[in-house]
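This section describes the prediction task in plain terms. A model, or a person checking by hand, is given the sequence of a single protein chain and must write out its three-dimensional structure as a string of tokens. No templates, partner chains or ligands are provided. The sample shown here is typical of the held-out split.
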Amino acid sequence: MKRKKAVVMTELDVVSYAAGGKSIARKDGKVIFIEGAVPGDIVDVKILKNKKDWAEGAVKHFHRYSKDRVDPFCKHFGVCGGCKWQMLPYDKQVFYKQEEVEQHLKRIGKISLPEIQQIAAASETTYYRNKLEFTFSSKKYFTWDEIQALDLPEGEKLGLPNIPALGFHVPGAFDKVIEIEECFLQKEPSNEIRNGLRSFVNQKGYSYYDIRNHIGLMRNLMIRNCSTGDMMLNVVFGEEEQSAIEDVMQFLKHSFPQITSLYYTINKKFNDSIFDQTPLLYDGKPYAIEKLDKWKFKISPKSFFQTNTKQAERLYQITKDFAELTGNEVVYDLYCGTGSIGIFVSDKAKKVIGVELIEEAIEDANENMLLNNISNASFFAGDVAEICDDVFFSKHGRPDIIITDPPRAGMHEKLIHQILRMEAPVVVYVSCNPATQARDLNLLSEKYEVTAVKPVDMFPHTHHIENVVQMKLKRD
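The expected answer:
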């Protein structure tokens, strides 16, 4: 059967950005979504998906580069999928992010909006993450330059040698990992630890994990570097070779005294998730401490916590401002996680009620409440739409303020109906996905109007954007 010849659209003028970090060109009434281009580029595009009104493709050739382009600062750019917008100046990044929020709220939300406030841009655009996770793989991903450097006979180009690597997964290739030498996302000694551990493991000849066959000792590495100076490591092993594990942990303990909490986990499952595993404390404290403003938070190896500490402070302060607290309000913190938002606003509230489905997160929330000597907060595990009934209200008080911070999928429709039934005077909706947020706002508009909107950039050099919306109950 003859293969279909690839369609190439030539000399497309890239005019803007769309959601998900893809750029847009138009030809003959069709919208073309392009990976890797910048508004102002003129490109040939290889079409990968072709529909009646739109198409998707990748740049095959640049005829002219946009004047807005800058040189990427990371040598792994273009292969690693982590910081795809490095070729775009930061002021342009936040411009397009703000534009994306506005477009989602108008096109999907279809509701009346106030003027959207200026995006809260990040003051630090590199070394801003407090947590990174790396993968050991028995199969390194080879770039074209690396393949050429191997100087293999032409017929062997497809049979590349299996060389282990420690770094990030390649987008679209679950079993291959890019060898990361220097990452600009996390402050030192992050690179020193990763590169030092790699050298030690290679010297010892310990095996890297083979995800296809589920064998190999070294599997994952988590590094958390807190603003307080606390540093937590969790080394995940795929096999239970105790002498080798002891070897690795002793190396880390003695080579990097900056580590304040040193853990290891043995994960023999098919997937990398450790939420159903038990990390074992090898040395140091059982938790790391992170601070947001004056508040302290205990973080364990399985805790969820915002990965950009400085911008999390700004995100929570905007949320607090939008709540317009006077000290007399009952605040319901829905999808409260480990209680970080609820604790952050607790000094301006009469009472905080946090609800979260994950029991372990509620345990962390209660720990953090005690750590901060908070007496006006209570946290409950369960489905918020089922917990928040009339009996619950009579016991804890009806909400004056609702703060909701759901996952990317947004709020369940059942919960939206429950919020409409609660009729709290103010709702503050924090979202990591303005598209699903816009959908939910449309449903809430039955009783609420949007009174303030402010995007927050938590992840420079990526297309991801957070957005905070204040809604108030409509007057009759």
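For orientation: Residues 113 and 168 are 40 Å apart (CA to CA).
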